[in-house]
Amino acid sequence: MSDTQNWERQLLEKLASASLVEQRRSRQWKIFFRLAWLAIIGMIAASVFMRGEEKSAVGLTGGGHTAVIELDGAITSENETGKKMISALDHAFRDKNTKGVIIDANSPGGSPVLSGMVYDEIRLLKKKHADIPVYVVVSEVCASGCYYIAAAADKIFVDKASIVGSIGVLSDGFGFTGAMEKLGIDRRLKTAGENKAMGDPFSPPNPKHDAIRQQLLDDIHAQFIQAVENGRGPKLKKDPQMFSGMVWLGEKAIPLGLADGYGTVASVARDVVKAEKTVDYTQQDDLSSRVARRIGVEFAGGVKSLFDTKLF
Questions:
Q1: How far apart are CA 244 and CA 235, in angstroms?
Q2: How far apart are CA 50 and CA 306, in angstroms?
Q3: How far are the Cα atoms of 173, 198, 211, 213 from residue 207, in angstroms, in the given order?
Q4: Is the separation of the CB atoms in 258 and 236 below 8 Å?
Q5: pTM of the predicted structure, to 2 decimals
């Protein structure tokens, strides 16, 4: 074999050897980063779990305390507001150390169904546990569906600048028939059932459907009004705007009977419940969702119906 061929062979062997070394290093780094990520996720999961366990342990041991449940954001099925509120209320009332329950409210409202479910659950639990009072403390907003829930409480406390009320119902949507005509789009909708397409945004207004939708809203509004009257009773003052969907600041809501006084979670626990120590019973998302948010990953989606009835 010539010197030239020998040199070329040695060079190829060196290149092949270097490539194998680089591949091994690459695999090692990939394994390292995967293990590192698993370790990080494991630590986050462990910390979340331990905090949850610590919170539960505090709630089930020691002397009397005030149970606090957050009602924050829109009341929807997507964020499982109703399910979480009912579960939190059940846990709080079952704890023998709970001296009172405070719902820390900051919500513009939402689903009338979910609001009604939580309202009914509060009234049911109050009957079963007559010695445990329920109070609502409003931070910024307690309107519509949130106020529906609040009406079940023994007392409602606000800040002078809190927004309270909006006892009304709405159903929103859009109409695209004019735009379709300009674009030359022909709607070819077929239904079985004359009212099946009620609320369809691509069909022209239908007086009969409009009347049906209005009756649905009126019926839900009547349920809302009845719930508020049952919950607040003689505290409510007669005002023509009371059930019009109007909102008031906290300082005006008190003389109208929509609220009982000023207070914060801390002050109500200390001065009203007489149990200054508070325990948070708010139901959090499942472990996987919490871990995903901790590492910056969150999925959201879904399609909202254009015929969406809300207590916003």
A1: 18
A2: 42
A3: 16, 10, 6, 10
A4: yes
A5: 0.72
The 10s digit of each residue's pLDDT in 161-200 is 999 999 988 877 666 667 767 767 777 777 788 777 777 7
Collapsed DSSP state (helix, strand, coil) of residue 244: coil
Q: Could you tell me the CA-to-CA distances from 279 to 81, 94, 108, 154, 246 in Å, in that order?
A: 19, 13, 25, 20, 34
Tokens of 9: 């062979």
Phi, psi values for residue 227, rounded to 5°: -65, -45
Beta carbons of 69 and 104 less than 8 angstroms apart: yes
C-alpha distance from residue 217 to each of 57, 222, 284, 287, 309 (Å): 45, 9, 32, 38, 8
Q: Are strands 98-107 and 278-280 parallel, antiparallel or unpaired?
A: unpaired
Instruction: Give me the numbers of helices (H) and strands (E) for the chain, helices first please.
Output: 9, 10
